[in-house]
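#dry-run=false #mode=assembly
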Amino acid sequence: MTITSINFFVFLALTVLVFYLCPKKVRWVFLLLFSAVFFLLNSWRVFYYFLFGTLVAYVGARLMQEKCRTERQKRIVVTASIGLIIGVLFLLKYVNVFPNSINAFGALFHLNLQLGTVDLIAPIGISYYSLSLWGYLVDVYRTTAQAERNYCKLALFACYYPCLVSGPILRYPELKTELFEPRPLRWENVFQGFHRIVYGLLKKMFVADTLAAHVKLVFSDTEKFSGPLLLLGVVMYALQIYCDFSGCMDIVLGASRLYGVRLPENFESPFFSRNLSEFWRRWHITLGLWGKDYILYPLLKSTRFQKLGSRVKKRFGKKAGKKLPLILAIWILWAVIGFWHGATWKYFFAAGMLPWVYFSLSEIFSDCLKKASEKLHLKTNCFSFHLLQSARTLLLMLIIWLITLSPTLSQSGKILSNLFSFPSMEAITKFCRAVSFFSLTRRHAFWKLFALAASLLGITLVDTLKYKGISVGERFDKQSLWFRWLILFSMIITIICFGVYGPGFQPEDFIYGGF
Amino acid sequence: MEKIKPILRIAAFLVIFVLVVHCLTWLAKPNFPDVKNINGFYGEKENSLDLVYIGGSAAFVYYSPLTAWEEFGIVSYVYGANTIQPELYKPLIQELLKTQQPKLIILDARCFQYRDPENEDAQPPAEVPYRNTLNGMRFSRNKAEFIHDYVGTQIEGEKLPYYLDILKYHQNIPDYTEMNVEMLLGKYQHPYCGFHFVQKQAPIPQYVFATEEKAPVSADTEAILNELLSYLDSIDVPCMFAVSPYAEKESHKRIFNYVSEIVESRGYPFLDFNEYTEKMGLNYGWDFYNEDHVTIYGAEKYTRYLSSLLLEQYGIPSRKDDPDYAFMDERMPGWDKMKAETKAAILKIYEERTNNEE
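#status=ok
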């Protein structure tokens, strides 16, 4: 059951109705029931992995809080529990990385190693709930959260169904109140939730999936669609992945809001970011925050890193003592994030190592660049400079996305080099025909392009308002009913007319659903 | 009031949403002759038709209601869609009986052999034949029941895109035509009472044989036929089964012999018009455009023969002098124009071919 299917919306509508019809105090029980049904409908064959993960987290947290007397004991329990949870994730998603890599390595030397691989089915949302449970265990270890005594409540935290498809990654202390406090019916939740779902559907079903066809065309033959066409293809992919993932988040957050449960935001106008660290603070926010809180800071605070810092400081100076442990910790963080994105070296490099190189370089050269701009008397606090910085950030991200779009890491170099060649007239003509949607009539192509342009303009407007700190949902709610319905029905009609759905159309899977 | 205001707002939103989906559904309908034929039936004046001829192309390129009107005063409609399957007859009859009480329903019997898997020319049930008929139908219980019973069993696929065909055709919306708007407003009327013009011509062989042998249809087809006959027993309208003339093969004839035995044993007439082609004056070198279909010339001959039979033997009245049926004349200028164009085109094709042959 995908979250853009009619089945999902029927399920959502029925469960929201039942949710508000039952007594306030037990509404969370129904949320658990709905989540269990959703989980079982999608992954009933591998239900036991989920059961195992939550039981480990439950027992581990309670042991830490109630039985462990020393810090060492607590550390052993937290490490073992996280190890077990991540072990299952690793087993299900990454077990084939090594045999595949060794086979590929052997092939370079004409060795037919043929190490066997195994096909294991991972339950829905395992990447997301495993990280959420990891965070929960660390929070209990740090005593920033109390161990949950009710297993069912912990299970609901882990399998809250709107988050199973593509996150966001949840934190127990934040979500506890949202999930388990009695949720009265507030109409603004229902309306704002619904508006958000429609907005998310527009982004996903129309914008992202329409752009996906063009991206596919360009990346089907990057030698043919080279140079500016390839660049345009990557830019389209940037828009596609943003509308796909943020659209999915809008649907998830909107669906959750219908139950009165507010989930953390995962996107805050990332394309307006001036640098990469800002970009990662605005793109997949919950993963970034999770990485910082549960990997980066613990590493930096660990004795080993502290010792390393002081050693480097003594030998190379204060700045190096500060920056080297940070660069090393960031390497570990990005290695984890890279692997989390996909069980291939391509993802490890593109989504892990390349951002790490960007960060490290920016850490190393940040002071020099600052001094240079001061000496050159550059006006940095103006729109044009902001635009330049945003363009630079986007360009760096485009390289990452271009590599993730390559079939393999080894082929990405070739594809990158294709950026600097010129396409044939035949390729340009085919691309232009694709942009005008191939065989459609002129009228159809005009309206579709118009709708696409209007939607992209609308998304930019919403993101601009968000960037300025304006709550778009609340601002929208304050408009007159006619205006709201005009916008809503415009979006609905656009989705119905041009959305990629139904027999004969191939809607794209959520890109982040695969991570 | 404050408490129920949000509920009213939701209700109003849902009503508008349903209306929007309804409108867009009709704007998305493909501009196919089948859709025009099926939907055009709703545009016929209530209780005006004396005869409804149901079938696939074996009906709507054969029987021309406006020829029957012009020359015999018969008020009729040829109702059907390409590659129709016999299981679709019941919902079509149910649909027609909502607005019409005809004196006779003719059911094309060719589809009983077309859908048989044993047949070399089989056209088994598939999405296209179902959609050809269902696309033009208004949403009704009949349509819903048919989808429920047959989609997923007779043909593969999900039921939902049949109930909500906008799921399949939504990308057509920007290309809507005047016809779509008329269908949406319930005002669409077929200009030729369901007849379909084809501007083609080709000589075809005539297979000569005489056989009394019977070849059974598949159990599936027989079950559908028996169910249809039981349904016909329950309605108060006379029905007749007919096979329009074509390049009939002996294997087909054996199947028709089998079907006719069942049909006649239940008290319904079964006429294979292949036996009357000489009386009709059908010319296999001129009146057809392929082995299965006649041109407008062949259609006129078939219609004339059938109409005189209906007037003489089946009690179908002539309404030519009845002022209540003057509305039928309104379509004649359009019909004449299209007929002349088609005949001219056929003549040109014929001449070009004979010139090439020479």
